[in-house]
Write a structure and sequence with these properties.
This protein has 485 residues and is of the alpha+beta class. 31% of the residues lie in helices and 24% in strands. The protein has helices at 2-10, 47-63, 84-96, 137-150, 193-198, 269-280, 339-349, 379-389, 395-405, 409-413, 432-441, 447-454, 463-484; strands at 16-19, 34-35, 68-76, 107-110, 126-135, 154-157, 161-167, 170-175, 178-182, 184-187, 209-220, 228-232, 238-244, 248-252, 256-257, 292-303, 317-324, 327-333, 425-427, 430-431. Strand 19 and strand 20 form a beta hairpin.
Length: 485
């Protein structure tokens, strides 16, 4: 949805984006945070999906090198599971079908000699190392929306879509803040796509969506190097183990059908136990339930292709067009990696209803996201520049600012000459200046928006710190509203 709004606004279309909660408050902030082709999808012959996703890796990396960066993944061979020749053949395809240019290719490892093997049990001496990219997923959403707004889009967070009826060539759309009219609706409501269809009078699209839950756990750092692991489980599933926020390790994901409420999805104790057991089967260090410092869970709105197992359901997207004037496009499925191409395909679908949608097509493949206007290998240089310009920042703080805000860090820090110029410390390395920036420029309204989506400062904050931040933000909002009344 954020990608569609950005692309539409950049083509000169009058665009309204509504989100009933905070941006990225559901599935989009609950991913494994990878920009990847999906190596395991090759098993299901999903060559088109993998090729398109691999082609997008370097496009997105170039557009947002502050929040997207390359990582190397270690895939150990494990006897009795997928044979070594199959893994190597899959990685050969992975290297060559997606137009890889800058990312390094696959190489074979001897895990009994390579540092990546030191943290592992003696599961195998043979392994492979390949490339994919990491993304701060919630920030990707927010930056797309920020760019859409900068290009003229009307963005309304905490505004629910209540329904729509056709009136001639227009939709009359009911929101919880009033009514608007539009020539087209894009239903990119994720897990709520079916519910949204049911609120559109006369819509005849079928809600062919399969809800699949994926959960992750975060533990204290399991190892010291910067590489990730891609592991196989005896049940045929795979899971990732990834360095996270400098001091932690991210483990996930699960795959199981979901039928519960969508507003507060949580990792079940069974899923947490599954991930702990899976990690323990590979790592020398044994994890237990108290080692989990945070868990999160999301529901993927996959297109229902009739696959028998959740792990086998397609991750590709399907778009349906219901009518032309006015038009309704429904988005089923999709991966975060292919969101930009999905947005282009949505606007192509809208061509008959909005002829001007064809104007400036493809512009997002060449444009940086806010803060990403620097070379893809320039994050360290930018952090060093910031440390010189703002001597009160230590190396860790400079890296964090670059990895969140890129070149916009200077806008956040302004004319500060010492740390105290950024205002009071609010916990988790947050200052009043940073939180004010997130409220004014990135649509944050509550402490949860700040500490779990705009940043991950919640990993280093207690409940009292977060409650105090909520109070500070509420007081600031009240003061600001009074000043503009």
């Amino acid at each position: 949805g954020a990608g569609v709004a950005r692309d539409a606004a950049g083509r000169g279309l009058k665009t309204l984006l509504v989100e009933k909660n905070d941006l990225a408050s559901a599935t989009s902030s609950a991913s494994t945070k990878l920009i990847h082709g999906g190596l395991r999808y090759l098993e299901h012959y999903a060559f088109r999906l993998v090729r398109h996703a691999l082609e997008e890796r370097e496009v997105l990396w170039a557009a947002a090198p502050h929040i997207i960066w390359p990582m190397r993944f270690v895939l150990p061979y494990r006897a009795g599971l997928r044979p070594a020749w199959m893994l190597r053949a899959g990685l050969f395809l992975y290297d060559h079908i997606g137009g890889r240019k800058r990312l390094p290719p696959t190489r074979t490892l001897r895990l009994d000699r390579d540092p990546a093997g030191l943290a592992l049990r003696d599961v195998s001496r043979l392994g492979f190392e390949y490339s994919d990219c990491w993304v701060q997923d919630a920030r990707l959403v927010v930056l797309n929306v920020r760019d859409a707004a900068d290009r003229g889009a009307d963005v309304r967070v905490r505004t629910a879509f209540l329904g729509a009826e056709r009136e001639g060539d227009l939709w009359r759309i009911r929101l919880d803040g009033g009514q608007v009219r539009a020539r087209a609706i894009v239903n990119a409501a994720g897990p709520w796509v079916g519910e949204t269809i049911r609120h559109v009078a006369g819509a005849d699209a079928q809600a062919k969506v399969r809800l699949v839950q994926g959960s992750h756990i975060v533990v204290r750092k399991l190892y010291d190097h910067r590489r990730c692991y891609f592991f196989q489980n005896p049940d045929g599933r795979i899971f990732f183990v990834i360095p996270y926020e400098e001091d932690f390790t991210l483990i996930g994901t699960t795959d199981q059908d979901y039928s519960g409420g969508l507003d507060k999805v949580r990792a079940s104790e069974a899923e947490i136990g599954y991930l702990i057991a899976a990690a323990n089967s590979y790592f020398r260090k044994t994890l237990a339930r108290p080692d989990v410092v945070w868990s999160y869970s999301g529901v993927r709105p996959l297109y229902d292709d009739g696959a028998s197992a959740a792990k086998d359901a397609t991750r590709d997207y399907v778009l349906t067009l219901d009518g032309e004037r006015p038009a309704l496009v429904n988005v089923f499925g999709g991966k975060i990696t292919t969101y930009r191409r999905l947005a282009e395909d949505v606007l192509t679908k809208l061509g008959s209803a909005l002829p001007q949608a064809a104007r400036n097509a493809g512009w997002t493949a060449r444009a940086s996201l806010p803060g990403g206007d620097f070379p893809i290998d320039g994050a360290e240089a930018l952090a060093a520049d910031l440390a010189r310009e703002y001597p009160f920042l230590d190396a860790r703080q400079s890296r964090r600012y670059v990895r969140h805000y890129g070149t916009l860090t200077r806008q956040l820090l302004g004319n500060a000459r010492r740390r105290a110029d950024l205002g009071r410390e609010l916990g988790g390395d947050l200052t009043e200046a940073e939180v004010a920036y997130l409220m004014d420029r990135e649509f944050a309204r509550t402490a949860e928006d700040v500490v779990w989506r705009r940043t991950k400062s919640g990993l280093r904050m207690g409940a009292d710190d977060i409650a105090a931040l909520d109070q500070w933000m509420a007081a600031r909002s009240k003061t600001k509203a009074a000043a503009t009344a």
